[in-house]
Amino acid sequence: MWLWLLAGLAGLWLLRRWHRERQTVARLSDKFVLITGCDSGFGNLLARQLDARGLPVLAACLSEAGAARLRADASSRLQTVLLDVTSSQSIAAAAAWVRERVGSQGLWGLVNNAGVAAPTGPNEWLTKEDFAKVLDINLLGLIEVTLSLLPLLRRARGRVVNVASVMGRLSFFGGGYCISKYGVEAFSDSLRLEMRHFGVKVSIIEPGFFSTAITHFDTHSKHLLSCWERLPQETKAAYGDSYMEDLFVSMRTTQKRCSPKLSVVTDCMEHALTSCHPRARYSAGWDAKLFYIPLSYLPSAFTDLIFGWLYPKPALKA
Question: Which candidate, 169, 178, 86, 84, places its Cα nearest to that of 126?
Fold first, then answer.
């Protein structure tokens, strides 16, 4: 009896949620959206996806070549700007450019998508500069871009969509990537609370593993080999040559498991921008929904056991 009642209530709640999330914001053709990291991957696809839906897209690219390719694939509505999120001067110039285009109506959407993963590897193999390179783009750059555009977002009572990762819930490997994504989660949570009274909604996208430039084996293997070659001989002996080989095998396996369906992620981004009732968090990909996110709620001893089984074993073990 009670089980049937609970099942009925759960069904009604899911039906209500489905109905609420289908309600779309009006006059989308007037809503300006700025997307960072549009040279390739999620940012590039989202820019074309929103452009096809009729939204005026402001696409920030790192290179002129990337911007030119995007313009060739989109309508005349889409506009591009060069943006290096590690440069305060570049961010200020891009913010001024956005301000000129949106005018008094403000900026409806900001999608902080720009990011890198390399260099990653065992923490002991990395330097402070290796961590800083990733944090400057994935976290500090994201924060500075957001702060520079908050007045325009408040004016429009708009949306901030920050791309984190399932690695912002579980730290599976060393380097700045997981640290930066944990930071994105924390910044987004505090910003969501602060902005709610201004009508600005903040959403976090937590993708699993997808096939983008961030997950390319060649990029990671190059950086990893460079880190290995500069290590002291004592450290190399502690880990052993087989550790490096096992890391390469693991990286190749991970890349093979990456999903090529980038629209799974960009659909979440689009919903966060266009739904009257966006979610605070979106888990994108079956690996995120069925493995990483559920695993993040379990005791650390259990997750350590799972990930420890997958980790390479060093030559000199205690």
Answer: 178
